Amino acid sequence: MPLLDSSRSILVLIDFQGKLVHMVHRPAPVLEAARRLLRLADLFSVPVVLTEQYPKGIGPTEESLRSIYDGLSTPKFFLEKTAFGCCGDGDFELLLQQARPMLRPPQRQIVVAGIEAHVCVLQTVLELLASGHKVHLCWDAVSGRGEEYCRHALERMAAAGATLTNHESVAFEWARDKNHPQFKALSALMKEGQPQG
């Protein structure tokens, strides 16, 4: 799997919602990594897709994440869904096309974060891989209710072809060089206190 390229990437944040987001394994560092990913996407002009699974029942996106999403200057897209996997909603592929209109699935690099690892994230990643996308799965921004559910889901997604990564690797791959115009901002973001976990 090649390194990430910010001009080919799309960040997908899956269902960081309601009370559930605070019930997952390692909620604080997972949320912090997701917040950083949003800010990094903004720095590197990477489009963002934010999804919510049946918000009437589960609740809206966690407030701090939604606040960062709402303030993004990079292109952003929102999907409210009932299918567990994002690809089960026909509008998801349309949003990916809008995010990177010049790229077909094999050229798209989808950076994924979300909950729950063994349900909505798993189904989304497996379906993205089946449709030819390159998937980079941020293990530090993925969780579920229970460490073993999360660990085995990550193993299954990696075995299917997803690249396991983390938000810092994503950041430095998007920058690629200390002379990148956004490197100073990236460095400042990384010094804001490391996610614990």
Automatic annotation (TrEMBL):
Gene3D superfamilies in the record: Isochorismatase-like
Tree of life domain: Bacteria
Residue stretches spanning the membrane: none
Domain Isochorismatase-like: residue ranges: 9-168
Annotated protein name in UniProt: Isochorismatase family protein
